[in-house]
Design goal:
It is built from five helices and no strands. The protein is mostly helical and 91 residues long. It has two domains: 59 residues, no CATH class; 32 residues, no CATH class. The longest helix is centred in the middle third of the chain and has 16 residues. The protein is flat, with a radius of gyration of 17 Å. It starts with a helix and ends in a 5-residue tail after the last helix.
C-alpha cells in the first residue's frame, strides 16, 4: 500500500491514521469525505457520532505484545523503516 500511494495522485487516495480513527471515528471519516468532496448524509453522520461516543467509553482489557504476533521491533524497523520514516515515526 505504501508503494501504491507513491504512484497515485494524492487526490485519488487518502490514508487514515488508525490512532485518529480510534480516538474520533466521526472526525476521521469526515476528513475522508472532505478530501474527496463528498457530502455526508445526516444518517451517516449520526451513526458515526454514536460510534465516536461508544469509542470514548470503551476501555480494552487486552494488552498485546509484538511477540504474540510473531513480530519483533527489529523486524519492523528493518522491513518497514521506509514507512516509519515517511510518517515521522520513531524507528
Amino acid at each position: 500500500m505504501f508503494k501504491f500511494r507513491q504512484r497515485v495522485p494524492a487526490s485519488q487516495c487518502y490514508c487514515i491514521d488508525y490512532r485518529d480513527l480510534v480516538q474520533n471515528p466521526r472526525k476521521a471519516i469526515e476528513k475522508v469525505y472532505t478530501h474527496f468532496g463528498w457530502q455526508m448524509e445526516q444518517a451517516c453522520y449520526d451513526r458515526l457520532e454514536a460510534a465516536t461516543q461508544r469509542q470514548r467509553e470503551f476501555k480494552s482489557k487486552h494488552e498485546y505484545t509484538l511477540e504474540e504476533f510473531g513480530l519483533s521491533k527489529e523486524w519492523i524497523q528493518q522491513e518497514l523503516g521506509e514507512v516509519l520514516d515517511a510518517h515521522g515515526l520513531e524507528r
